[in-house]
Write a structure and sequence with these properties.
Quinone Oxidoreductase, Chain A, domain 1; Rossmann fold; 6-stranded parallel beta sheet; about 30% helix; binds adenosine-5-diphosphoribose; binds zinc ion; ADH-like_C
């Protein structure tokens, strides 16, 4: 990683220039850096961001200079078959800014991470990637809603449809899993079982709202979840690791007719093998959660408001705030499992 001078074009039609105030360091940035997403180097990393709109291009009416916004990486098109059927959270044609940001030295085009690129003082995005929220929230907290925290909360409340009185198990309690715990609690889950192989993560999960914890390095998590749910399994199990073995645990830790939500992102070589008879016989739903199946315009302002009212504590996800030069160190800390989120302040 290097800090470089870049050229950010003035916003064209449908685009917005955003002065970034804070941007979280996410695993996906590391995946980009390692070439795990694509080979379109050089990347402009950073995508969990909040800031202030500085300028907008022609035809942009939904936001204006001075607005405090959270950036999202799924600006919906309004015209694809999902949007037209009233399911914009599944939009199959999300978009980014058309113009490219470039390196000042040599002019090479940059590929912004998830179409955002916010480890930068300013970034160019599509206007639809900006969601206006209450500026009373701190930018470091707000930015996290742009990716991991929204993915986790949405996995529980949108994809999993957790309701009052439900039992919920969350496998993998990093930033995403902990956010799923916050979401489950918000939705009124009666029992929230956190599963992880790291005792430190389980302690944190309890602070976030888990009512029970299971260390799956020491205990069989399927048996433990069943034991904690009257012998049956949880109504909703959220897999926030993205591995076949944890998916299988999620599958069997769920009650009959329950729901499994996969929000952890697997890698291409991973394969899942399950008895098809169990898939049929156990019924219910096996779902994937894209970005928490969120609709930024609906979910970001609502979650910011609940945070400002003290009904959820999104501040607990910010482990440390750092400078732009410290992202490499933050990747190392992430690898060690020391942090939920390091957030770059600009
Ligand atoms: N069983 C249980 N927990 C596990 C296991 C396992 N086999 N392997 C790892 N974990 C735990 C880790 O201890 C850690 O607490 O899963 C958690 C993963 O957390 P992070 O590494 O902080 O990742 P996070 O940002 O939460 O993202 C989780 O969601 O969006 C995706 O790409 C993201 O796949 C990733 C997942
Ligand atoms: Zn992310
Ligand atoms: Zn669409």
């Amino acid at each position: 990683m290097r800090v470089e001078t870049i050229v950010v074009p003035d916003p064209g039609p449908g685009e917005a220039l955003v002065k970034v105030q804070a941007c979280g360091v996410c695993h996906t940035d590391l995946h980009y850096k390692q070439g795990g997403i694509n080979d379109d180097f050089p990347f402009l990393l950073g995508h969990e961001a909040a800031g202030v709109v500085e300028a907008v291009g022609e035809g942009v009416t939904e936001i204006a200079p001075g607005d405090f916004v959270i950036l999202n990486w799924r600006a919906v098109c309004g015209q694809c078959r999902a949007c037209l059927r009233g399911r914009p959270q599944y939009c199959f044609a999300t978009h980014n800014a058309r113009q490219k940001m470039t390196l000042a030295d040599g002019g090479r085009e940059l590929t912004p991470a998830l179409g955002i690129g916010a480890f930068a003082e300013k970034t160019l995005v599509a206007a639809g990637q900006c969601t206006k929220v209450d500026p009373a929230v701190s930018p470091a907290v707000a930015g996290l809603l742009g990716c991991g925290v929204m993915a986790g909360i949405g996995a529980a409340i949108n994809t999993g449809g957790v309701g009052r009185g439900d039992s919920v198990a969350v496998i993998g309690c990093g930033g995403v899993g902990d956010a799923a715990i916050v979401g489950a609690r918000l939705a009124g889950a009666a029992r929230i079982i956190a599963v992880d192989i790291d005792g430190r993560k389980l302690e944190k999960a309890r602070e976030m709202g888990a009512t029970h914890t299971v260390n799956s390095r020491e205990t069989d998590p399927v048996a433990a979840v069943r034991e904690l749910t009257g012998g049956f399994g949880a109504d909703v199990v959220i897999e926030a690791v993205g591995r076949p073995e944890t998916y299988e645990q999620a599958f069997y830790a769920r009650d009959l007719a329950g729901t499994v939500v996969l929000v952890g992102v697997p890698t291409p070589e991973m394969k899942l093998e399950l008895p098809l008879l169990d898939v049929f016989g156990r019924g219910g739903a096996l779902k994937s959660s894209w970005y928490g199946d969120c609709l930024p315009s609906r979910d970001f302002p609502m979650l910011v408001d609940l945070h400002l009212q003290g009904r959820i504590d999104l501040g607990a996800f910010v482990t440390e705030t750092i400078g732009l030069d410290d992202v490499e160190k933050a990747f190392a800390r992430m690898h060690e499992g020391d942090v939920l989120r390091s957030v770059v302040l600009l």
